[in-house]
Amino acid sequence: MSDKRRADGPKKVVLAYSGGLDTSIILKWLQTEYGAEVVTFTADLGQGEEVEPARRKAELLGIKPANIFIEDLREEFVRDYVFPMFRANTVYEGQYLLGTSIARPLIAKRQIEIARAVGADAVCHGATGKGNDQVRFELGYYALEPDIRVIAPWREWTFASREQLIDFAEKHQIPIAKDKKGEAPFSIDANLLHSSSEGKVLEDPSVEAPEYVHQRTISPEEAPDRPTVIEIAFEQGDPVAIDGERLSPADLLARLNQLGHDNGIGRLDLVENRFVGMKSRGVYETPGGTILLAAHRGIESITLDGGAMHLKDEIMPRYAKLIYNGFWFSPEREMLQALIDRSQEFVTGTVRVKLYKGNATVIGRDSPFALYDQDLVTFEEGSGSYDQRDAAGFIRLNALRLRIAATRARRAQG
Predict the structure, then answer these.
(1) DSSP string, 225-237
(2) Contact assessment for residue 363 and residue 229, using Cβ atoms and an 8 Å cutoff
(3) Domains of the chain, residue spans
(4) Fewer CB within 10 Å: C terminus or N terminus of the chain?
(5) Could you tell me which residues are beta bridge partners of residue 38?
(6) DSSP reduced 3-state for 267
């Protein structure tokens, strides 16, 4: 490695920088391997940790103050990424609420915007070559800046072990937390929507995750013995208030997170199929998102036409897969989003949700735009707009092809 800039290297690189050991090593590696000027970008997405220490760490590693970007993106994250995703009731492989996946497009977007602002010719991320995040970051970069150069150190450098990384850090006087000297028991990624834990003690999917792995929830067994009932108000598919108090998108999700935490809601132990081809086991916690999903489906149940609801349910797995695989900025995701958003025109009203020992149960819903007609569905004498005798012809018409097929089968049997 050399401190002189390589002829084929970038001149200025915008690094997605957490301030942790790995991205600090990457920062120094960019300087020594490429001789590049490094610009750091640290996003506050509600990960629950102070982001200002990243500024001090970057300065300690020689980054000019003008080249350090620390931004609070919590409101944009929830408003423009989380809420649009939840309008579709999005889950990947039937369970995962995509907490990590949905954060990557926003980070990629801001990196590209900063690269344009400072005249950088490259961007860099700290994702490994085995995971999904490398794909998500880089698809985002290329979708927004087709000719940008992407540096992925984990796919480029020659470090073969954790010990070599620690040696590099010590050589270049990069501060190392005491618990970083050895192998971490598991890795954590977090934002305002969720936390995810993977690796090490979690790699054997037959072994229950230790309780200390969980970051965002108490166990359902430890949750209160009395239920908590809340009311969530929606306007055109997005939540806007809890118990009558209007809140910003980030504040509302944070409030739901606390309610979910206190009632042991939102834990998921999942073996999923990564885009790169392997299976992985993760322990996810999405307390507020789990409540929100139940509530959103509750308000849709009385405001969304049956055909529209079923179409949404049919396209949702495709939409979820696009987000999981990193295609947030793709034309097909944007087309699906337009369809989903159109469906939310009358998804307005209130939903009551009971929170109790790991469960979020809808117990009431009301809307000025409800399609539910109590007079139609009552077992008592109704208004006369539905004549039960009409059902006979309806059934016979729908049975016609079945009767024809059965008649043919009978003939074939002799």
Answers:
(1) SS-EEEEEEEETT
(2) yes
(3) 12-73+101-183, 188-304+346-366, 377-412
(4) C
(5) 13
(6) strand
Measured distance CA(301)–CA(295) in Å, rounded: 10
Query: Using an 8 Å Cβ cutoff, are 194 and 216 in contact?
Result: yes
User: How far apart, in whole angstroms, are the C-alpha atoms of residue 223 and residue 218?
Assistant: 7
pLDDT band at 383 (very low <50, low <70, confident <90, very high): low
State how far the alpha carbon of 111 is from the alpha carbons of 116, 196, 230, 402, in Å: 9, 23, 38, 58
- Rounded to an integer, what distance in angstroms lies between the CA atom of residue 363 and that of residue 359? 12
Which SS3 state, helix, strand or coil, does residue 91 take?
coil
Domain range 12-73+101-183, its CATH number among 3.40.1360.10, 3.40.50.720, 3.40.50.620, 3.40.50.1860: 3.40.50.620
All residues at 6 or more sequence positions from 285 whose CB lies less than 8 Å from its CB, including other chains: 194, 195, 196, 214, 215, 216, 217, 266, 267, 268
Active site residues: 22, 104, 133, 187
Over the stretch 200-212, which tens digit does the pLDDT of each residue have?
Answer: 899 999 999 999 9
d(CA 78, CA 105): 12
State how far the Cα of 204 lies from the Cα of 391, in Å rounded to an integer. Answer: 54
Please report which confidence band the pLDDT of residue 375 belongs to, taking 50, 70 and 90 as the band edges: confident
Is the pLDDT at 3 greater than 60, yes or no?
no
pLDDT single digits (tens) 42-89: 999 999 888 999 999 999 999 999 999 999 999 999 999 999 999 999
Token pair 């598919």 in the structure block, residue: 237
Indicate the helix (H) or strand (E) that contains 171.
helix 162-171
What is the dihedral sign for C-alpha 263, 194, 273, 283?
negative
pLDDT at 2: 43
CA nearest to 258, candidates 301, 236, 228, 213: 228
DSSP-based three-state secondary structure for 19: coil
Architecture of domain 188-304+346-366: Alpha-Beta Complex (3.90)
CA-to-CA distance for 260 and 97, rounded, in angstroms? 15
